[in-house]
Amino acid sequence: MIEIKGLAKSFAYDKKEAKKKKNKVVTDPREGDGVFHAVRDVTFSCDKGKVLGLLGPNGAGKTTTLRMLSTALEPTQGEILINGHDVTKEPRYAQKLIGFLSGKTGLYHRLTVRENVEYFGRMHGLSKQTMDERIDKIFTMLDMHTFAGKRADDLSTGMMQRASIARAVIHDPKVLVFDEPTTGLDVISAKTVLDFIESYKETEMSVIFSTHHLHEVERLCDDVCLIDLGETKFFGSTQEFAAQTSSGNLYDAFLSNVNKKEEVA
Ligand SMILES: Nc1ncnc2c1ncn2[C@@H]1O[C@H](COP(=O)(O)OP(=O)(O)OP(=O)(O)O)[C@@H](O)[C@H]1O
């Protein structure tokens, strides 16, 4: 069970940016004195065996929220609990449980796909036998055996993304945190990634992923959290979300919850 309560993150403006902001009329509620409140008040939870879709226009604060959840960034305010453990106080506990896929691949270009995944497995202290078993299972699920011996710098975008996912889940995490996992992928690679997420849904694991693709939400998500301008505008089941508008579709529900309608992908 993951619980995020009143989460906030501010970034200090650099000197150049701060100078530009001086004496300017402020219309964006995220703009503060010397700081930008990228995430202002985000609250949601995700139970075991559930998939939560994190939605929001460009710049809403989704990546920043997921980075805090994965311990890569420290919150300015608020609380992140995994099974009741405070992530900021016990980052190692969280890192063991979470498999985090960020926008960056995190792969070593000169190593093969298998060497990359093994490297991260060793960092998590996996034995050779466990590693071999895990790699076989994950490479089968993500259809990776054919390119396991290729160097990372020779991979297509779709192969690279699947290798990044394998790296993120080698330690058998109980929580998947994926930031836009299908962005830039062709239909076949995207389907492989979505099937992989769906397979987690059948287990007792929690999955949180951000996306701009509402058909992915429709297919996979039990719950939805919509963020706009750094704060939660909606949190609830996908059905409740869709039922907010008379059309009952997710697209209209999205538009009715955000300010910047033109930024929907
Ligand atoms: N390290 C940082 N320093 C300053 N501002 C930042 C930093 N990281 C993010 N921001 C700003 O915070 C806001 C939220 O960014 P974030 O990447 O979380 O949005 P997002 O919802 O993931 O957007 P997208 O859908 O475009 O990926 C943006 O305005 C971004 O420019």
SSE blueprint and pairings:
Blueprint: E1 2-12, H1 15-21, E2 35-46, E3 51-55, H2 62-69, E4 77-82, E5 85-86, H3 91-97, E6 98-101, H4 113-123, H5 128-141, H6 157-169, E7 175-179, H7 187-201, E8 206-210, H8 214-220, E9 223-228, E10 231-237, H9 238-242, H10 250-257
Parallel strand pairs: 3-8, 3-9, 6-7, 7-8
Antiparallel strand pairs: 1-2, 1-4, 4-5, 9-10
Bound molecules: adenosine-5'-triphosphate.
Adenosine-5'-triphosphate binds at residues 11, 36, 38, 56, 58-64.
Radius of gyration, taken over Cα atoms and rounded to an integer in Å: 19 Å
Give the overall pLDDT as a whole number: 91
Order of helices and strands: EHEEHEEHEHHHEHEHEEHH
- The structure class reads alpha/beta
β-strand number: 10
CATH fold field value: Rossmann fold
Tally the structural domains: 1
Helix segment count?
Answer: 10
Q: How far apart, in Å, are the first and last alpha carbons?
A: 30 Å
Q: Tell me the helix content.
A: 25-40%
Strand content is 15-25%
What is the approximate shape? globular
- Main pleated sheet: 6 strands, mixed
Query: Spans of 5+ residues with little confidence (pLDDT < 50)?
Result: 261-265
Give the CATH class: Alpha Beta
Strand order of the largest sheet: 6-7-8-3-9-10
Oligomer state equals single chain
CATH architecture term:
3-Layer(aba) Sandwich
Query: Are any ligands bound, and if so which?
Result: adenosine-5'-triphosphate
The CATH homologous superfamily corresponds to P-loop containing nucleotide triphosphate hydrolases
